[in-house]
Specification:
The chain is an alpha/beta fold and 561 residues long. Helices cover 30% and strands 24% of the residues. Strand 21 and strand 22 form a beta hairpin. The structure holds adenosine-5'-triphosphate (ATP) and magnesium ion.
């Protein structure tokens, strides 16, 4: 038991160093290093058009000068409201080059959701997708926003144009109906005008390692999103940890597929920082779409694919039918939600490659744990801590006290990727960041004697029924094992006389009639009686977050109404 004698656990994956060096480069310095090292290699590909590292470097320097002329200074906040596109990468590094703080947003958020975030962070500058430029430009005068730059992602790209028509957009009219204060119209200037002033002086001082680089809003799975404050050192460390983690990477030769949104912590770190730090080609997709991916594969076969279980599932089925060739993928890394073993089997059978699971959260830049990328990975677990990352498993009611090895408790994390706190939320920060730099994850986990971590569930979502604890994930796994159940969400519903019942919302395969009693009988063969859902409700669809996590909170509200 290599860890039994230690109060905390650290990484031991074979061939992976236990620690990384301290970061020395800020993100713009990291990008500049890639530009000089990989100049002629492709950095970005978008609908077939490529941008080399040298061209990307020049675009960043031009956009930085353009932003400086608009008035952006060190410490200013610059909101990005963009889908995945080359301008997203350029805007990110240009703002950082000036020492400004980037804030990422989901461009298909409703105006109300966007407004809520703008109220929270108070950015004066926004770089937005032209489809939502009207909404943002008409944000009322009680917000700090002054300057809006509008990006047409389809410029000179007929193929992108056709695709962009299919992205859902909220119309300005709807926006106005949702906003009460009077709009002030700011004129949105086109992105291209930023690029006409030459390049930023090389002497212009950039940020320091401990400066804030990013306010990254959490997914909002358990409540409304909170802005996690991440420094250059945090984000650079996570890219370095990833570099140390992955064996057999060929710097300057990998092809990453950017199907995850860059505005979420997971896609941001894997694609926007990690891929750029190793000189990879990043193929960007404005939205995950099987057809788009299949057509890109022919021109640029992927070697590195970070994604989430529903995407792997769909791609594996297509590969099994022979409609897409994914045999070139050497690294398939799943995160953000639990990865069903059935998906691993399906992917590995269809592609011949490994699919490994990692774990993280926005507050840890985000990656904190991962499976070894090789035969010693263990499906069903999230692996072992990343280099320089320590973990503890504690009593959630008393986070000072560790539970015995092997028992379940709340997972704590510590490492150079752990955030600084929540933007303007000292109470939330104090509850989440404990003395000594330990981050409370809010997730219940257990550690095997040889150090592999299993995530049981979110602490907030564990159901207590008749004095027993029920993990919704365990019940959901039992439900989806039924051949006619496509998806399931398990939540607690209040009983009329107090206490909670286990309730399941299920999505049934097309054309099948499934009686709740039959579902309960099926569960009885797999689960102890107290875990079997008291109520089973068939629904058309389950609400999901921007990366595809089932929102149990919304399912519960829906079932209660
Ligand atoms: P919010 O904190 O706003 O409610 P969120 O926690 O979903 O939203 P993220 O930071 O995107 O926001 O997600 C981190 C969470 O995702 C983790 O705390 C964990 O619950 C879940 N998660 C991430 N990876 C895995 C995994 N491999 N298995 C199970 N759960 C995971
Ligand atoms: Mg969270």
């Amino acid at each position: 038991l290599p860890y039994a004698s230690r109060p905390w656990l650290s990484s031991y994956a074979e061939g992976v160093p236990h620690e990384i060096d301290e970061p020395t480069q800020t993100l713009p310095e990291m990008m500049a290093a890639s530009v000089s090292r990989y100049g002629k290699s492709p950095a970005l590909e978008f609908f077939g058009a490529t941008t080399t590292y040298r061209e990307l470097g020049r675009l960043v320097d031009r956009a930085a000068e353009g932003l400086r002329r608009v008035g952006v200074r060190a410490g200013d906040r610059v909101a990005l409201v963009l889908p995945n596109c080359p301008q997203h990468v350029v805007a990110f590094y240009a703002a950082l080059r000036l020492g400004a703080i980037v804030i990422e947003h989901n461009p298909i958020y409703t105006p109300r959701e966007l407004r809520h975030q703008f109220e929270d962070h108070g950015a004066r500058f926004a770089i937005v997708w032209d489809k939502v430029a009207d909404t943002v430009a008409e944000f009322p005068s009680d917000l700090a926003l002054e300057h809006v730059i509008s990006v047409d992602i389809t410029r000179a790209m007929p193929r992108a144009k056709r695709f962009a028509l299919r992205l859902p957009v909220r119309k300005a009219r709807e926006a106005r109906a949702q906003l009460t204060a009077a709009p002030t119209s700011k004129r949105a200037r086109p992105w291209e005008t930023l690029l006409t002033h030459g390049t930023l002086s090389r002497k212009h001082t950039g940020p320091r390692l401990d400066d804030i680089a990013l306010l990254q809003y959490t997914s909002g799975t358990t409540g409304s999103p909170k802005g996690a404050v991440l420094t250059h050192a945090n984000l650079r460390a996570n890219a370095m940890q990833g570099r140390a983690w992955v064996p057999g990477l060929h710097d300057g030769e990998e092809t990453f597929y950017g199907v995850l949104p860059l505005f979420h912590a997971y896609g941001l770190t894997l694609c926007l920082t990690f891929a750029m730090s190793i000189g990879a080609k990043l193929v960007l997709f404005p939205k995950y779409d099987l057809e788009l991916v299949a057509s890109a594969v022919r021109k640029s076969p992927p070697t590195f694919l970070p994604a989430v279980p529903p995407i792997y599932d769909q791609l594996a089925r297509a590969a099994a039918r022979g409609t897409i060739d994914l045999s070139t993928v050497r690294f398939a890394i799943s995160g953000a939600m639990s990865l069903p073993v059935a998906t691993v089997d399906r992917w590995e059978a269809a592609t011949g490659g490994l699919l490994v699971e990692g774990y993280g959260m926005t507050e840890s830049s985000p990656v904190a744990l991962g499976n070894p990328i090789g035969p010693s990975r263990r499906p069903g677990t999230v692996g072992v801590p990343f280099p320089s990352t320590e973990i503890r498993v504690v009593d959630p009611a008393d986070p000072e006290t560790d539970v015995p090895l092997g028992e379940t408790g709340e997972l704590l994390l510590r490492g150079p990727q752990v955030f600084q706190g929540y933007w303007n939320r000292p109470t939330d920060t104090a509850e989440t960041l404990l003395d000594g730099g330990w981050l409370r994850t809010g997730d219940i986990a257990s550690v095997s004697p040889d150090g592999f971590v299993t995530i049981v569930d979110r602490l907030k979502e564990i159901i207590i029924t008749g004095g027993f604890n029920v993990s919704p994930s365990e019940v959901e796994d039992a439900l989806v094992a039924h051949p006619d159940i496509e998806a399931a969400a398990v939540v607690a519903l209040p009983k009329p006389r107090g206490g909670e019942d286990v309730a399941a919302a299920i999505v049934v395969r097309d054309g099948v009639d499934l009686e709740p009693d039959a579902v309960r009988d099926f569960c009885k063969t797999r689960l102890a009686a107290y875990k079997v859902p008291r109520r089973v409700i068939v629904v058309d669809d389950l609400p999901r977050s921007l990366v595809g996590k089932v929102l149990r909170r919304e399912v519960r509200e829906h079932l209660m109404s």
